[in-house]
Amino acid sequence: QNEEKWDFVLVSDIHDVDSKNIRRRNFLDELSKKGFTIKEIKDRKLFYGVCAPNDIFQKYQCLRRMADSRQPSCSDHEDVEDTDRIRIVNFIVRNTVTPDSEKLQDLMNKKVFEAAFPLHEKEEIKRILNEDWARWGVLFKEQPIEAIRCYFGEKVALYFAWLGWYTYLLVFAALAGLVTFVAGTTVFSSSQVSKEICDANTTIMCPLCDQNCSFWVLSDTCTYAKVTHMIDNEATVAFAMFMAIWATVFLELWKRERAIVVTKWKLHEWDEDEEELALQLINDLHHPPQLYQHSYFRSTIILILALLLIMVLIGIAHMLVVYRAVAMALFTQSEVNLLSKHANTIAVMTGAMLHYITIIIMTKVNRRVALFLCDLEKPRTLSQQENSFTVKIFIFQFFTNFSSLIYIAFFLGRINGHPGHYVRIAGRWRLEECHPSGCITDLFIQMAIIMVLKQTISNIMEYLIPLISHQLRKKRKKRPKKRGMMLGEEEEAEDSCKRQWLNNYELNDVHIFSLFDEYLEMAIQYSFTTIFVAAFPLAPLLALINNIIEIHMDAIKMMRLHRRMVPRRAKDIGIWLQVLEAIGILAVIGNGLVIAITSEFIPLQVYKYMYSPCTRDNHTSMDCSTGYINNSLSVFCIQDFEPHTKVLPEFKGHQIKECRYRDYRNADDYTHTVQFWHIFAARLAFLILFEHVALCVKLIAAWYIPDVPQRVKNSILTKKHQNLCNKLSMIEYVTEV
């Protein structure tokens, strides 16, 4: 006996309230009027299996043929794919209106129905996906994209095709980053700048706080200096340029890959508006088209509210700055030797962890605000709603994730003033200073902590929460055994449906933005991988490891822990492509700024070619960076300290009259030296040159790599020619007859 096949299942509590029973019955009656077959099964819940009549699918096929400019003959009917069948039934079920003008979502909000979902099928394709995709043993095996499309639809298949392509090309970025990092480790102890810091045991530095802080010797930070120059070297510049080119090549190659896949699926001419209109007409022949609309008033309100939230996010970044300044002062004055000795590093690390906590909290807030703004905007279709939501949530998440990083990269140590004239928070706490060897290590630590936490804790929770939730739902299930009122074969058939429906119901629900969350996670990761990658060359490697695990973790969740997602058609990844292109441009700007402002690359080059011993003597054997550290430190007379600064003038038995600090200022009036302006001009020139060269290379790469391969273009052209020939032959035949 063939097993019954049901397109959709509705779940309801066994209500004692008559009003809910009436509403439920009214909705099911409306479905019955449209020819739907409905089967009821009672358990601890009420289950309603829904099966659509074949004439609905015949209408859909006919309208599709006409939309595709094929011969508008509806006499021949092909079998409808399961993904199309589920999508059509989902649209009709969710847009069926009761006599009380209530749709399914309204009834679910009022608890008349608890859930509505398509079923995971017991088919060969599911077995293929479970064996070749949704298990940990196939981590390095190619994904069965065609099988994913046949089971979850084109939108999900395109996401995994894109993610697989991104992960594949990350191999090259990860190798380049690893080579850059290894090249940095080779100069860990041999860098001339690091050697000077490690040997500077007579260079007395100014205190790091105002109260009870002593002077300190520059050589105490020897290890920190070595780490800094392991990250900050000439190879970093080449790697930043490589990543700017890589980001462009990745997107251009993806466009080609997408064109091949979409043409293979015969979706290159598919139109979303026509699809929506066809489904609306099938559901209700008299349904008027939903027209486009725009309101400048609503747009203004949305813009104002969005700017307010962005200001709040920037304010949170300022609070993190305040925390770091206060923590630095408290740790420096601590009696615990470990805290006082490594106050800066501990402040950076705890600040990064606090930043990660704010990311978790604000992600939830950002989502609610973005959804509220989308409701205000009133988008016409689901795709427009997704696009609107995508732009808003990505902008909010970008500021949430990167505001603190932007401060560390471009403002830390540059707006704090100088001894005798420090910039203070609330007139009390000094802003942080950079280490004499530069600020890039602070950015490295911040990025490393956030990326590691996001890719471990977040992914573990993303997998464990659905797993635990599913196990708890299974434990709570109770299977009543009283089936006396039914006969043998009917009982057996119904038991089979009941078991399948219960198993699907016990899985975790999928919401409308389930796939969106995966895209957003990858877009934020892509931002970390490209925008500040000059400061953290290991970012592509961490992203690669994460993605290899992510693909199969998502597959396991979708196949075993979540209900089946309603398949949706798509011919590209939508607005995410524009988001990724915007990130690529930001990556050029960001990396250019990191090298020009955060890195010590430019000041060191200016010193080598204008102020080093090499410019005065022909010392070919001398390292031209000799003397750079002494040159980059200014002199401060301790008698010029502010009145409330309490510093002991003695240090290790010596009377201290002056100390050094990181800046380019004159010793008499503390104004900027000529060298400061030389470095400023060089930074600006490098930034302009780097960004123009990188953007030109991006444009050339985009031009050089066609978006659509020639064979795909030729295939489409040949099919158009053949269709026109067939139509012309038909016209001539009709004319002759």
UniProtKB/TrEMBL annotation:
Keywords: Cell membrane, Glycoprotein, Membrane, Transmembrane, Transmembrane helix
Every Anoctamin transmembrane domain range: 148-716
Membrane topology listed for this record: Multi-pass membrane protein
GO molecular function terms listed in the Swiss-Prot or TrEMBL record: chloride channel activity; protein dimerization activity
Compartment(s): Cell membrane; Membrane
The keyword Cell division belongs to this UniProt entry's keyword annotation: no
Domain of life, per lineage: Eukaryota
InterPro entries: Anoct_dimer, Anoctamin, Anoctamin_TM
TM regions (residue ranges): 156-183, 235-254, 301-323, 343-362, 389-412, 523-552, 573-597, 684-705
Anoctamin dimerisation domain boundaries: 81-145
Name listed for the protein in its UniProt record: Anoctamin
